Amino acid sequence: MTSVAIAFVQRRLKMKTKLISFLLRFLPCAFDATNMNRIQGGTCTLWIYKTVQTIAQVATSGYFNDHASLLNNGDVIIVVDTNVPTIDVCAVTSASGAATVTVQNGT
What we know:
Elements: H1 3-24, E1 36-40, E2 46-51, H2 55-58, E3 76-81, E4 86-94, E5 102-105
Parallel strand pairs: 2-3
Antiparallel strand pairs: 1-2, 3-4, 4-5
């Protein structure tokens, strides 16, 4: 292959990679407990959660259900969107003994 052909193929691959990354942001993804870390305990636990998803996706009812046994009403979750660097602060509004964990985005 010539250097022009190689450069063309490299540009096409880069474009496809960007397109796939963009499209993946719109797929509903499940909660990933490996990205959830407790940074302070007590009566109100402070958590940090890193994700590539938007806050709109993370703040949906039931998103944190896999962590329900560790979350309590009033806990605070700092949500870090690593794809578009933003930080949101959410309060857990329903968790203790609830079937569905809900959070309220307080930004």
